[in-house]
Structures are given as C-alpha cells and as structure tokens.
Specification:
Length: 388
C-alpha cells in the first residue's frame, strides 16, 4: 500500500475550513484512491492489487458511508441543505416547465441533470429587474432571450406571449417587490449525448431573487482582462457559457478591482463580464463601443435614449456609438459600467490610469438617477406591472 500526500487544489484554497469536510461528500475520487481518515482529504492512499480482475478498493474504504437514498430522503436532504447554507439571496419562486408550474419552496428549485443546458451548456438566459412591483424592461429582455435562443438553435418551449405570461405570473406568485427575475430557455432534458436530438422538449425555467439592497454609486476600479473575450458570435448571445466571464470577474477580484474590461480582437474596448461600458469624452460626448461584437445591453440602450435629455439640456454635446480605442477610453473625463446589475456605476481608475479627476463624474451620476427614475416612473414600454 503506497501513501500519497495530497493537498487541497489551489482553486479550493478559498473554501473555509468548516466546509472542507463536505468535500468528502462532493468529490468523486478514482476508484483506487481512498480517504485515510473520514473527513480528511489531505492524505490519499493508493490501493494496489496483483489481481486486476478484483476491484481496486482497499478494505478501509468507507463505501457504506455513501447511502442509497429514497426519493423522499433525497428531498429531505435538499431541504436540509437549504437550511444549512443560507446565502445572502432569497429565492422566492421558481417556474419550471418540467414541473409545469411554480414552486415557492427553494429546496425544490432544481434542474434535471440530463438537461442539455446542464451537461453541454446548450441554454440561454436573461434577467429583468423588479422594482416597486414592476418588471423593468421585461419586453426588451424577452426579445433578447428569444434572439439568443434562435442563435443557439433552441426552439422556444412556448410562444412569446405565453413565456411572458409565465414570467409575470412567477413574479406575482413570489410576491417580490424588489429584486430580479432570471430565466433560462434550454434544449431540455433527454439524454447525455452531444447532439440535442434526444432532448424531448425545450424547457423554460425562471427564478425570482429578492434583493433589497440599494444601487451603489461609489466609484470603482477596473482592470484590463487577460482572459480572452468570446468570439463575436458567442459574445453577442446570452448563452449559459459564462466561464470566460466568471474567470474575468475572478481576475478582477484577485487584483482588487470590481470588473475586468475586455478588448476585442482589434484592440478596441468591448465590454465587462456582465456589463457594458461607456465614456464621457473631453469634448463632452457620451461614447459607447459598438454592439456588433458584444452583448447588446438593454440598460446601455436605454441609457443612450435617456442621455438625449442631457444633450437637450446642453450637459452633453453629443452621443456616439463607435469603435473606442483604449487610449481614448483612458483619457476620457468619465468612464462608467452599465448593466441591469450595476445600473450605472462610475469608474475612477482603469489599470494604473486614473479616470478624469479620480472622482465619480457628474454625467455618470445623472445617468444613474435617470435610470432609477425610469425604473420607478418610466413609460409603460419599460415598466410591466405585476398583478400580485
Ligand atoms: C456580457 C454582458 N454584457 C453586458 C451586459 C449588460 O446587459 P443588460 O444591461 O441587458 O443587463 C450583460 C448583462 O447581463 C452581460 O452579461
């Protein structure tokens, strides 16, 4: 019997010690490796066997520790897990076309593992904010998920009107007044093949997440992403393939920044991992990168419309959507991140470059106020009432 010391992988170094004992339950180890001591993953031993027809399992294996659960026991575990790991967010309701209805018990908010979205990333999603009992820009986000589904070659599970009705009803059932509605359209469950031909029906899932926090207008720092940007075909659809986005966000956090900014393959400024970017130039022009190689942000598009008021008031001299070089961006008077998650967030530093005078810019603040105002009392084209 050989003994192999094994330390925790680096990506788990942030896992608090009280959680590492659960790794025993979560990790799948090769059959010929066993834990020497229950609750410890710091030392693994390899069992060797001269008879290769025998399973390579040593006698200290605690296979009996892995229970065979009945359906009701598994559901009980799901409930316990929800009780034990309460995060900051509350999930108030979920619609699933698999259930054909809405559930409000977070323990049952699950997605089938054979869904093509889960094991192949063949799904698209979107998010709309809920503000004071209204869904903000629901139709714009709905248009985008339908576009994304078409690009991902996923047939809609229902017609647009039915999807819209289900989404509004899910928010209504949640009784959520402030938060967000996230929803997915996937190729659906069926089998584990690469081709979706065995997926028997596309699926719709939607979840309501409560969020009472206020939008922050404090200036933040960004860095240039070293994680490669997705090619335009994939960056311009909102598929569930967000690994580059996650890695980019992690890179920013590792560098003490809020977000990492992508440049496109020609070196022009593209977008952040879940937000668009915009600038106020020295000539007092609102400047936004072209949307052809990135996600067409619903908030950014709305900002472009609302900013026309600032042009009328003479606070801006113009609005331009164009290629933006890094040099032009870094010497701008103001830089901001724009998206449904951040609304409008001023950037005061990009890499080593201080933006403008290093303080939150007045135009960013005005645009944030415009969006907040729009969410609270904008026209019916951007505010869909939820009948609670
Ligand atoms: C990659 C990316 N860019 C931009 C945005 C901003 O889009 P929106 O304003 O519609 O939230 C998002 C938001 O999810 C995003 O994921």
């Amino acid at each position: 019997m050989a003994s192999l010391p094994a330390s925790l992988p680096r990506y788990m170094s942030h896992v608090p010690p009280r959680h590492t004992h659960h790794l025993h339950d979560l990790c799948v180890f090769p059959r010929n490796l066993s834990l020497t001591k229950q609750g410890s993953v710091r030392e693994l031993r390899i069992a060797t066997s001269s008879n290769q027809t025998e399973p390579l399992i040593d006698s200290t294996d605690k296979l009996s520790d892995i229970p065979l659960l009945s359906c009701s026991e598994a559901i009980e575990k799901l409930k316990q897990n929800r009780e034990n790991y309460k995060g900051k967010q509350q999930f108030l309701a979920m619609y699933s076309s698999i259930f054909g209805g809405i559930i409000t018990d977070a323990a049952a908010m699950v997605i089938p593992v054979d869904d093509h979205m889960v094991h192949r990333g063949h799904g698209v999603f979107d998010t709309a904010a809920i503000m004071d009992g209204y869904l903000y820009e629901l139709d714009q986000h709905l248009d985008r998920i339908i576009r994304s589904a078409s690009m991902a070659k996923i047939v809609l599970p229902f017609d647009r009107e039915t999807i819209r009705r289900i989404l509004v009803k899910t928010v209504s059932a949640s009784k959520c007044i402030k938060g967000s509605l996230r929803y997915w359209i996937s190729a659906g469950p069926g089998d584990f093949h690469l081709s979706p031909s065995g997926c028997y029906q596309p699926a719709l899932y939607a979840i309501v997440i409560e969020d009472q926090s206020l939008f922050d207008s404090k200036g933040i720092k960004v860095v240039t992403s070293s994680v490669p940007i997705k090619p335009p075909r994939f960056a311009s659809m909102k598929s569930v393939n967000y690994l580059p986005n996650v890695l980019s966000k992690m890179e920013a956090e590792e560098k003490g920044a809020y977000a990492a900014i992508w440049l496109d393959n020609d070196g022009f400024i593209a977008e952040g991992p879940n937000m668009n970017v915009a600038f106020v130039t020295k000539e007092k022009e609102l400047l936004m990168p072209n949307f052809d190689k990135i996600l067409s942000g619903c908030t950014a598009k709305r900002v472009l419309t609302l900013a026309e008021g600032l042009v009328r008031d003479g606070k801006l001299h113009g609005i331009r959507v164009d290629n933006v070089s890094v040099e032009e961006g870094k010497r701008a008077d103001e830089m901001m991140l724009i998206g449904s998650g951040v609304l409008v967030r001023p950037v005061v530093q990009w890499d080593e470059q201080v933006i403008g005078d290093g303080k939150e810019g007045p135009i960013s603040q005005m645009l944030l106020n415009f969006i907040l105002e729009d969410m609270k009392s904008g026209p019916s084209s951007v505010r869909v009432p939820v009948p609670y």
